[in-house]
Design goal:
alpha+beta, Phosphorylase Kinase, domain 1, D-amino Acid Aminotransferase, Chain A, domain 1, seven-stranded antiparallel beta sheet, five-stranded antiparallel beta sheet, 6 helices, 30% helix, globular, binds guanosine-5'-monophosphate
Length: 236
């Protein structure tokens, strides 16, 4: 099989169609830029199921993404896009690096969603960028930054409402976008590896912070996310 790209949690394979790729979810869990690494049996399947369900929710809300269809237990068929090398993070609640960087209290709700941009570059440790850096490094055109920001906010708000039905608080979310046919499309995955989800009532952590912080029962919590959101999915 022709692997085009291997990341920490996924592989991308070529297909018989030039404009389509197979996105395959791995069981690998990594944190702190790959310093911490483990195999968590079943994670690839769960993240594929959660990504699939969320991509369908977004499609039903009229939000275009790279998703085409489900292939098997761990793989999705996606449109080939040229990835914009930015990690776009949307936050509604203070956590993680925002708490460290600003001193704001963990768990504090922000007045409005905050959008941040990071350079997608593991060797540099994904440094945060201002829009001026994005221009200076010629990573994206100003109108693309505007489009990505607007889409990121719409996606976050939609998913925040969706997760709330399942008793989960969407704290923050990392998105990646790509270019295809003159359009900007959401790409990559949306899973507990790429967002923070806390129980609305108790604050219990359900996302990859369980792995990062050695809280245990990582897979059990990913499974619970899927069980909680499945009844609220418009399509099964
Ligand atoms: P923070 O900047 O607080 O570490 O992360 C903010 C959000 O973006 C969290 O939901 C985190 O999981 C996600 N995130 C940020 N950088 C990465 C990354 O390189 N890989 C993954 N999987 N998620 C990231």
């Amino acid at each position: 099989m022709n692997i085009l790209y291997e990341g920490k949690a996924k592989r991308l394979y070529a297909t018989e169609h030039d404009d389509e790729l197979r996105m395959s979810f791995k069981d690998d869990a990594t944190a702190f830029n790959g310093v911490k690494h483990a195999q968590l049996a079943g994670k690839g399947h769960l993240n594929k199921e959660i990504t699939l369900l969320l991509y369908r929710e977004l499609a039903d809300a009229g939000i275009e993404t790279h998703f085409l269809r489900e292939l098997n237990d761990t793989d999705l068929l996606v449109r080939k896009v040229t990835i914009i090398p930015l990690e776009v993070v949307v936050r509604k609640v203070v956590a993680g690096s925002l708490a460290k960087r600003t001193g704001l209290a963990q768990g504090q709700t922000l007045d409005e969603p905050l959008v941040e941009y990071y350079l997608k570059d593991d060797a540099l440790g994904d440094p945060m960028l201002a829009p001026a850096h994005i221009r200076a490094l010629n990573l994206a055109q100003p109108d693309e930054v505007t489009a990505v920001t607007q889409q990121a906010l719409v996606i976050f708000t939609h998913l925040e409402t969706f997760f709330a039905q399942a008793g989960l608080r969407l704290v923050d979310l990392k998105l990646e976008f790509g270019r295809a046919d003159g359009k900007i499309l959401l790409a990559d995955e949306i899973s507990p590896d790429t967002c923070r989800l806390w129980d609305t009532e108790t604050g219990e952590i359900f996302d990859k912070d369980r792995f990062r912080q050695d809280l245990g029962e990582v897979i059990e919590h990913y499974q619970q996310i899927l069980e909680r959101i499945s009844p609220h999915a418009k399509r099964v």
